[in-house]
Design a protein that fits this description.
The chain is α+β, with helices and mostly antiparallel strands and 187 residues long. It contains six helices and six strands, in the order ααααααββββββ. It starts with a helix and ends in a 6-residue tail after the last strand. The model is unreliable at 15-28 (pLDDT under 50).
Length: 187
């Protein structure tokens, strides 16, 4: 019965020293000297420190970009509403022109009060009318026609066909204008 309790010697594999000590086995296989464990730890710590600094910088940039985007969203939140309101204002102005034939009428007086309120509302929202005096600026004006003008330089605004507006520094709608051009010499 004792034979049953003893391990079978035939099935066991012998243990070599290379299997017991992996560091000495690695150094025997690699001719380059292994780094000191402290140097390895310092290199690993430096790598993680660099990663953490980069991540912190990326997070700071993300915070700044998010704050800027949030500020722009608040500043320009009404842009779509104001863009939709501009054609209504155009039609109202046409009604004001028709009513201006009798400036003493109650209709004209009432419409003039509404126009002042609209202008105050637009100003409070940061909407400005685009200036249409002086030279043509393709960033602010839309040239719908050119007319020959003998007394004057080319590119001067002669007439406004539709007012333009901007919301702070963004263009809501360019002003439609008629621009002067130098007359062509008759042949």
């Amino acid at each position: 019965m004792q034979a049953d309790n003893e391990p079978n010697q035939e099935h066991e594999t012998p243990v070599t020293p290379a299997e017991v000590d992996p560091v000495s086995a690695a150094s025997a296989a690699d001719p380059a000297p292994a780094l000191d464990p402290w140097e390895e730890l310092e290199a690993e710590a430096a790598k993680w420190k660099e990663i953490s600094l980069r991540t912190a910088a990326e997070m700071e940039n993300l915070r700044k970009r998010t704050a800027r985007d949030r500020e722009d969203a608040i500043r320009y939140a009404n842009q779509r509403l104001l863009e939709d309101l501009i054609p209504v204002i155009d039609n109202f102005e046409m009604g004001m022109q028709a009513a201006s034939q009798d400036t003493k009428s109650m209709i004209f007086i009432g419409m003039d009060m509404v126009r002042r309120q609209l202008n105050e509302f637009l100003a409070s929202q940061g909407v400005e009318e685009i200036p249409t005096t002086g030279s043509f600026d393709p960033n602010l004006h839309d040239a719908v026609a050119q007319e020959e003008c003998a007394a004057g330089e080319e590119g001067r605004i002669l007439k406004v066909t539709r007012r333009g507006f901007r919301l702070r520094d963004r263009l809501l709608r360019p002003a439609s204008v008629v621009v002067s051009k130098v007359p062509t010499p008759a042949e």
